[in-house]
Amino acid sequence: MPRQPAPRVRSPTPPRPPSPPPKAKPLPYNPRRRTPAVSVLEPLTPDELHFYRTQLGIGTRRLAKRKRSPSYEPPDNRQPPSKRSRDTGLVMDHYNARPEVGIEQRRVSRIIGLRNFNNWIKSVLITRFAHPTLASSTVVDSGGGRGGRGLRGKVLDLGCGKGGDLIKWSKARIKEYVALDIAAISVDQARGRWDSLPRATRFDATFAALDCYSEPLTRGVPPAKLVTPFDVVSMQFCMHYAFESVSKVRCMLQNVTRWLRPGGVFLGTIPNAEQLLMRLDQIPAEASELSFGNVVYSIKFESREPRPLYGHRYSFFLQDAVEDVPEYIVRWEPFVQLAAEYGLHPVYRKEFHDVFEEFQEHNEFKPLLQKMNVVDANGETEMDEDQWEAANIYVAFAMEKR
User: Fold this and answer.
1) 122 in a known ligand binding site
2) pLDDT tens by residue, 51-104
3) Is 161 annotated as a binding residue?
């Protein structure tokens, strides 16, 4: 694998001395960066530029003015917050507290190259495995959709976050989309992103806050939305949270498979357990902390032993994204055996660097590297060695329901 060149770093501008605030008013919010800013020189595509510009509050304001039909009220028997595990509460609070940022802040993120690369990986996964499945879907827009081109397919996005994959599903020309996440504020932001999509590219969408690892979909999704099965279920960078216990993994698998049609696919991205445990074993016996990483990310285990199949906990930090959130090891082979009980069988699993190796020269995905700002016209990248290392702790997978 060729070494990736380091990104070009913009010299920070010395801050101006603050002016004395008015006596009756508080100091303005004026956070300072801890790390130097990084610029992205390649512009976004027109569609992406329009999409991100509308995230700065315009879409949310339009959403508030739009007349809505009565919303679905789920049964009032959800698990009370006091019954959730402490880790579940930490994860939910963390993602609820993450601010929604615009295009300018994304451009100066320390991990902008990593974000772009991860998005490219997800695009490859969706195009390679979801698109063919959606093409054979029976869920079709009878009205022709989008000027007669037609929309087809139904997607369930578990752990949708703030809606970062909405453009990918729009480009897949799906007809129906159901998005769930434990963080209610993130769900609201995802709904605002969807509302900000150009009307010509918008699909039917349902959003709900739900703990998909402890509750069935019926507690958050209107029954009418579950009559027709899904063609694709997607879980991006979130499935590992279920591995706190076997009961949560089984609940997650039940939610994935109960409404997934035969021949449907389950797509996901998860940390690579083999690599994480190998790195743990490489930590010297005399080390004061069981941690590894770099300036971009860090992983810290609580102990070397025991190593349970479920509930093997570590803390994860990713600059500008994740602040020491508890996560769990996903042992692949035991998971495959458990998933088989629910009719799921693996058809693809590769580490991110292997996905890159496989598709970097592909006729469709090579141009996408530049379009998604993973590389520029000269083949240079904003990803430095630290970001590349952080990307390669993950694997992408696809399973089929049989």
Assistant:
1) yes
2) 434 443 333 233 233 333 334 555 544 444 445 678 787 777 766 776 665 555
3) no
Q: Using alpha carbons, select from 219, 178, 165, 181 the residue that is nearest to residue 92.
A: 181
Distant-in-sequence contacts of 201-205, Cβ < 8 A, 24+ apart: 201/47, 201/146, 201/170, 202/170, 203/151, 203/169, 203/170, 203/173, 203/174, 203/175, 203/176, 203/177, 204/175, 204/176, 204/177, 205/176, 205/177, 205/178, 205/179
Tell me if 294 is assigned to a ligand binding site: no
Q: Is residue 204 a known part of a binding site?
A: no
DSSP β-bridge partners for residue 107: none
182-198 burial string, b = 16+ CB within 10 Å, else e? bbebbbbbbbbbbbbbe
363 appears as a binding residue in the annotation:
no
**pLDDT tens digits, one per residue of 30-55:** 434 344 444 333 444 555 444 434 44
- 241 annotated as belonging to a binding site for a ligand: yes
Q: Is 4 annotated as a binding residue?
A: no
- Candidates 239, 392, 252, 402; CA nearest to 330 is 239
* Stated pTM of the model: 0.78
Distances (CA, A) of 82 to 85, 185, 212: 8, 19, 17
CATH numbers and ranges of domains, the chain: 46-67+92-270+332-401 (3.40.50.150)
Flag whether 394 is marked binding.
no
